[in-house]
Structure formats: structure tokens, C-alpha cells
Amino acid sequence: MRLGITLFGDRVAPRCTFAESILIVVKDRGRITHRETVQLENKTIIDLMNVLRDYKVETLVCGGISVMEIRELVQSLDIAIVDNVAGDIDEIIKTIKMGTIQPGYGLQNLGATPLK
Amino acid sequence: MSDFEKMSNIIFNSISDGVFAVNQRRIITSFNRSAERITGFKASNAIGKHCFDIFRTEICHKSCPLKDTLEDHEPIEDAHVTIITCDGCELLISVTTTVLRDDDGDIIGAVEFFRDISEIEMVRKRCDQAKVLSDIISVNTRMQKMIELLPNIAESECNVLIEGPSGSGKEVIAQAIHNLSPRKYGPYIRINCAALPVTLLESELFGYSKGAFTDAKRDKPGQFCLANRGTLLLDEIGTMDVSIQVKLLRVLSSGEFQPLGSTKTLRTDARILTSTNTDLQAAIKKGRFREDLYFRINVVNIQIPPLKERPEDIPLLVEHFMKLFKEKFHKPSERISPAAIAALRKCSFPGNVRELENAIEHAFVMCNNAEIQVEHLPPRIMEECANTKGFVRDKKNEKDVIKESLVRNMGNRTRAADELGMHRATLYRKIKIYGIDIHS
Fold first, then answer.
1. Is the CB of residue A83 less than 8 Å from the CB of residue A110?
2. Which end of chain A is more exposed for a tag (fewer CB within 10 A), N or C?
């Protein structure tokens, strides 16, 4: 499975459309077999869309993504969205490896439990 | 908990503004009930989290008021930001921040007060609506009827075809539809179909994939993609090649399109407005325009009359352009003489409002006095004016022109007659003939 995680520094970007970079990770049988950071040069929606498409991302892991922004555009590329995720990248990678990443991860009241 | 602490807690939770405090690492340390109500997050979940993970504004990590206050120790008042609430909605809030100090005066964090200003924003929207409509300058009855309908047209998602001669203001109407619509925060893109050759227009509209042609070194998104959640105006649609019309029809029917050289189908949620200065019905008969596309784009039809059919708008438009050029040229010209207005009224303006704008710009360049005179107008207009009898080019517009002049001169017939370039007795006679009630 190929995932894209929108980042700001070493944390998930609070808002999908204001990310500095995307971390592309490939997960195969519980292991991360590839990890690559792609900078978003102009930090625009088009930049983000191009990276998601060029890197054939299947799942986007991100922070807040408003209805008015790019949710439908991302979904039109057949990309699943795991949104409302908060936390630093190492924590998120561990959760992805465990297969427990879900919308709201890092924000308890959305039904997820932060990693201890 | 002491009585004092209990009371402090009651007061904290009774404040109608959202209030929360952070430590120096921007981790939330307290979160009142109004903050819960506005953001949708429970205090028990928000406390211990970074404020940016909870609020998710467009300026988190960049020019965050709370971060700036912690760094500069200066309060920030009434900054406007949009947050994403717990349920994924965008909300506009007003933010005020200040530092928190302990008993020794050392900074231990910062506090932020915020309030939902979406209702105020709604009122502002109504004012904006009035302002947008005020950008369309006209007292013409036909135009007024159209202007009245614009908010409804804008609110709906239907396709609109704007018809009118070149320079009559089709783009102003399209921009107004976008600005009045729920898509106003999305992009507004205009493409002149007549300005680009077929292949270029196709790649501009639909985009292309890397390798689609020699120069396609990387993917380029098309305007349909860029206009997602916004509005795309296809200007001069009548000149569009039939091969592109087929693809456009697909976009209008299903929102789907394929970039050049790509096998992937993309979707767009762009609202498509079209405009033309040609007779599309005639183009259909000649096989140059697809009938099915015509019916698809022509759900709502807006007709803009040429300027020669609404000479009563000329003085208002002149006044508008005078204001614009006065700022641009920094010249002493402040007004235009009644004779010059009368001359402009006699002109046929084949180039419509754009030609009138150019004429006023020309006059500003030529005039170094406070008042623009007939001789400052372009020679073509002076010549046409000299060859036109009466005070208006077309007699059927006489009544509207007289009414407009009387309204603008507050019923003063002497001033109106002077401006219209006629004797006062002639004006009295025409008022009687047309049954104009000067008191209304």
C-alpha cells in the first residue's frame, strides 16, 4: 500500500492544503519498504495533487481537510483519505505499520486512541 | 479546590468568548466551555494537545498570533482566521491573544480569546452583494431587470450564457455572478476562446500529461482542474472548434475530462459560464456550433444591450471612468462639460462601454484643465457628434435620457436642458409629450 502523509516540519500538517512536504511511504506486509519526502515547491493544491498522482498514492493521511478545499478533488483520483490526524511523523509511521491508523488519530474524541 | 478557584472556574466557563491557554510549547493547558462549543472539541481532549492540531487554521506555523505573542510578548487584537472544526467545517473566528505571566512576572504561556464571527460575515456578505451589484453601472430598465435577477442566478448552479456585443460588459456580469455565488472564495478564471489556436486551447482547458507532446516535460493541470470549486468563464464560446465542443459537452454533462495524453479521467466541480458576441443560433444552422452544447450552456440566458440602446447610462459611466482615471493620471480634470456629455450621447459606440472608457482615457490625456471639453474627446466621436442631429442618436431613447438627466440634476430643468444641449422650452415640450412626472 502506498501512502502520502502531508507534513509540516516533522509533524502531520495541521491543515492539508498548507503542508510543506509529503512523505511517501510504501507498506508491504507490515513493513515500510520505501520512504521518500517530496517537497511541495509552491505549496499549492495543484502541487499537492500532482505529487499524489505522480507517486500513485492510494491513501492520503492528513490533518484537517475542509469540505470547501480538496476533499472531492483527492477522491476523484480514487485516493482514500484518513483525515483529522495529529502527531509527529515517527508516531504516525508506527501506527501505520501496526495497521491502526484511522481518521481522528491523535485527537481522542474522534474515536481514536493516541499511541502510548 | 478553594472557593476562589471554584469561582474563577465558574467565571472562566461563563465567558461567551472561547478562551484557552497554552504553555510556551503551545500545548493547551485550559479550554473553556465556549471554546468547546465553537470548535466542537471537548476540553478533556483538547488539553494536552498542540493548539495547531486542534484549530487547524490557514496560518498555523506561519504567522500564528499566539506564536507571535509568545515570541514578541506583544498582544494581538482581532486577527481573523479560519479554523476547521471537529466536524470538518470551516469557521471564521476573530482572535485576540496576550501573554500569561506568573507572580514574578515571568512568561508562562499565552491566552487566546476567540469568537465565531460567521454571522457577522453573513451580514458582510449581504453588504458585499450590494457592493458587487453597484459595480454594474446602469439605470437602463432592461439592465435593471437583469441586475435584480443576478443574485438568484448566482446562487443557483445552473449554466449561464451571456450574450452581448463586444465591449458591452459581459465579463463584468460574469465576475458579478462569481462574486455573488457560494463559490466566491474559489478561483475565477477567464479563458478567451478566440485568442488561442485549437490545440493550445485544448491543452489550456484540459491540461496534459508528461510526454503528451514534445514540450510536455511534466504534467500541466488544465483550467477545468484549476477552476475546481470556482467559476470558469469561456469567453467568445462561438469561436470554439467543434472538436473541443464535444469534450466540453462531456465536462458539462458529467464533470469528467481527460488531460491530453492521459488515460486517466479527472473530475471537476467548476461552474461554467459562457459568453459570446456572435449569434449562436446562426452558427448552429451553419454547422459551426453543436445544438446539444447550446442547450446545455444556455440554461439561463443574459442579454446585454449595446450602449447605443442605453444612452441614459452614458453620464453615469462617464462619472465612473472619471473617478478611475483621476486616480490613475493624477490630473486636475475633475468634471466633464455638459457639451461633452451631449456629444457622447450622440455617438453610436460600436465598441460599447470599452470604447467609452477609451474615449474618457483619451480626454484625460488631452486635457490639462479642470473640465473636459468636447475638443478633448477622440476625433471620431467629435466627427460623429457633428453629423448627428438632435440630442440623442436614436429617438426611441429620448424619454429615458431626459428622465435620467432630470433625476441626476434633481429636477432642475434649466440644468438638464443645458446638459442635453437643448433650449429650455424644447425640454418643457418634450416633458409634456412623454408625460414625464418631474416630481417623481
1. no
2. C
C-alpha cell at B85: 472544526
- Going by C-alpha positions, the residue among B362, B343, B364, B342 that lies closest to residue B354 is B362
Phi-psi region of B195 (alpha: psi -120 to 50; beta: other; left: phi over 0): alpha
Quick one: three-class SS letters along B283-331?
HHHCCCCCHHHHHHHCCEEEECCCHHHCHHHHHHHHHHHHHHHHHHHCC
User: Residue A116: inside a domain, yes or no?
Assistant: no
Q: Residues B195-210: pLDDT tens digits?
A: 888 888 998 999 887 7
Question: Are the CB atoms for A4 and A57 separated by under 8 Å?
Answer: yes
Return the residue matching grid coordinates 450574450.
B163
Residues 3-42 of B with CB under 8 A from A: 41-42
E runs forming strands in B23-150: 28-31, 76-84, 90-101, 107-116
CA distance B435 to B56: 64
Quickly tell me which residue has 482547458 as its cell: B205
CB contact under 8 A, B53 and A50: no
pTM above 0.80, yes or no: no
Domains of chain B listed by start with CATH number: 3-116 (3.30.450.20), 122-305 (3.40.50.300), 310-434 (1.10.8.60)
CA distance B50 to B61: 11
Residue A100 forms part of a structural domain: yes
Determine the residue type at B41. F
Q: Residues of A with CB below 8 A from B50's CB?
A: 11, 86
- Distance from the Cα of B5 to chain A's closest Cα (Å) equals 27
- Chain A's closest residue to B257, CA to CA, is A76
Whole-angstrom CA distances from A110 to A42, B44, B87, B287, B328 are 32, 12, 9, 58, 55
**CATH number of the domain within which A104 lies:** 3.30.420.130
8 A C-beta contact, residue B57 and residue B81 = yes
- Number of separate domains in chain A: 1
DSSP H helices, A12-76, are 45-54, 71-76
Other CB atoms within a 10 A radius of the CB of residue B216 amount to: 17
- The type of residue at B261 is G
Question: By three-state DSSP, how is residue B428 classified?
Answer: helix
